[in-house]
């Protein structure tokens, strides 16, 4: 939605500047209302999103997450697709018997279950650290607003 | 009255009591669409597992393994590993930034009306196709499992129960139906696995020795064959399948990327209080689903070795492998138990599909596209969803009865996964991770993914195959011509096309509004700030 009001009008006009109509939740604003005009509810919801997004704490949170997610995703995709590829193109290797009649193909398939569970548990462990970082960011924001 | 009927009636009675209880507790939109966001981690884990493990996995995979050995087990592996995509990439941002549907996350920074329209279309496509496959499966199955209940009757019973759960009980009732079903399914499968092992004197060596020498008769020539069922390739490789390996890889792609785009799985993450619980519920689901799919080893190979291909083929075909195994090992009572679990399985899945379809229509299309994001009257969205659930239910019953006995609908599940992987997942990922991504990209990406998977399946051997004259009725393919597209699974072409469409669409035009709101979306998605409570 275009906002065609003049900059000085924007400050005096308390109507929130919103983007396209959506019902998701109250949106952030480009320019904050004067503090004395805010209701308690609004006060609780106004977040300077781009300010948070460019803060060093938030950047390091996103980096920490990606540092886990990207290698983990690449690893599980390679490990998983190795199964159909090897089964298709290296049948002799996959048909080799390991224990009794059990062959490499079956053990490799079974190892995929173990792999999925291990990656999931490692992710949960890493995510605990991410949760702490996120809580700190949210906590700091609330403290700042509460202090006003 | 037969034992299976009694057990099934007991399940129906319990679920109807739950529906009554849920209907009395359910007030308001968040209660109806998202069970008040009060479901705990382990409960949602069970519900996700119950929503996911369809008749296709319980009866279908057991049958695939019993008939094709190792190749069927590849499905089991793919169905579990797929949850890593859900866990690592989709579940938490979705819970943090959305409200009721997958489209919430897309509409967040893009122009909501075009994006929601096409996302809703894609959701309805995936859900109704998947549902018709399940209903036809239910009809065929029940007429085998409960003699005396015909195909049409079974479809109507499944359809009416599903409508009752969803219309009156909403997400809360659906969730508990799925939880009970997951517990039943897990215990039935565990019991069956133990019986299979007991049959081999609890010796894995004996069990796997038997699997490596399975004897059966070729259905066409009648010659006796002995095969090692642990050897890969009995379904996908061979002189008649020159593209077998590619087809297998393509299937794996649809499974891995499709699960994270299935609307009925995604809506489950809105039923928990926060992203942390959503994560915990995926881990619970991965544990349950993993244990279940490992046990398909015993179900499938057990059926191949103990019951035998020849016997199953004569007594109802592949899908009857698990129930026949139960009958062989545990007698008629156990057969009845496994049969009623199969019925419960179908009910829980179709209820999940109905609620995700009706939520998407009411929330995305009715409220946000037609009425621009505001309800005209309080409670309108829920009312529309209830009516939609009713309509979707009735249409599915009619389509299942009309198509079911004359057309082979097995391709519909593959189609649902292909659409989810090629249309839904690319736009979800790009909207979360690519700042430049915009409305045009989302619309073109969704449309390309949707169209390419549907067209490629129409041209594939699943639809176009010349059957010999001996094949009649529902087993016959829709178009009696040589296939134009050689693969059964279109994923390897349609998933890259979905991404490409989204990418090219984005580059056509810049959308500063979408880029400006990327900061807000990433902060919300990563911190849970302002998430729906």
Describe this structure in words.
- The complex is a heterodimer of chains A (148) and B (533).
- Chain A has 148 residues and is mainly α.
- Chain A folds into two domains: 40 residues, no CATH class; 97 residues.
- Chain A has six helices and two strands, in the order H-H-H-H-H-E-E-H.
- A two-stranded antiparallel ribbon of chain A has the order 1-2.
- In chain A, helix 4 runs antiparallel to helix 6.
- The longest helix of chain A has 44 residues.
- The radius of gyration of chain A is 26 Å and the shape is elongated.
- By secondary structure, chain B is mainly α.
- Chain B has a single domain, classed as Sodium/glucose cotransporter (Up-down Bundle).
- Chain B contains 20 helices and two strands.
- Chain B has a two-stranded antiparallel sheet with strand order 1-2.
- In chain B, strand 1 and strand 2 form a beta hairpin.
- Chain B is globular.
- The mean pLDDT of chain B is 88.
- Classes of the chains: A mainly alpha (148), B mainly alpha (533).
- Chains A and B meet through helix 3, helix 4, helix 5, strand 2 and helix 6 of A and helix 5, helix 9, helix 10, helix 12 and helix 20 of B.
β-sheet strand percentage of chain B: under 5%
How many domains make up the 3D coordinates of chain B?
1
- Report the count of strand segments of chain A: 2
End-to-end separation of chain A: 32 Å
How would you describe this structure in keywords?
heterodimer, A: 148 residues, mainly alpha, 2 domains, elongated, B: 533 residues, Sodium/glucose cotransporter, 20 helices, globular
Short description:
The complex is a heterodimer of chains A (148) and B (533). Chain A has 148 residues and is mainly α.
Please render the helix and strand layout as text.
The complex is a heterodimer of chains A (148) and B (533).
Chain A: H1 7-12, H2 40-45, H3 49-54, H4 56-89, H5 91-95, E1 97-99, E2 102-103, H6 104-147
Antiparallel strand pairs in A: 1-2
Chain B: H1 3-25, H2 29-34, H3 41-52, H4 55-68, H5 70-97, H6 102-107, H7 112-145, H8 151-199, H9 204-211, E1 214-217, E2 224-227, H10 244-258, H11 263-266, H12 275-307, H13 309-314, H14 321-370, H15 380-404, H16 411-433, H17 439-458, H18 491-507, H19 512-516, H20 518-527
Antiparallel strand pairs in B: 1-2
Helix pairs in contact in B: 1-8, 1-14, 3-8, 3-12, 4-5, 4-12, 4-14, 5-10, 5-12, 5-20, 7-8, 7-14, 7-15, 7-16, 7-17, 8-12, 8-14, 8-15, 10-16, 10-18, 12-14, 14-15, 16-17, 16-18, 17-18
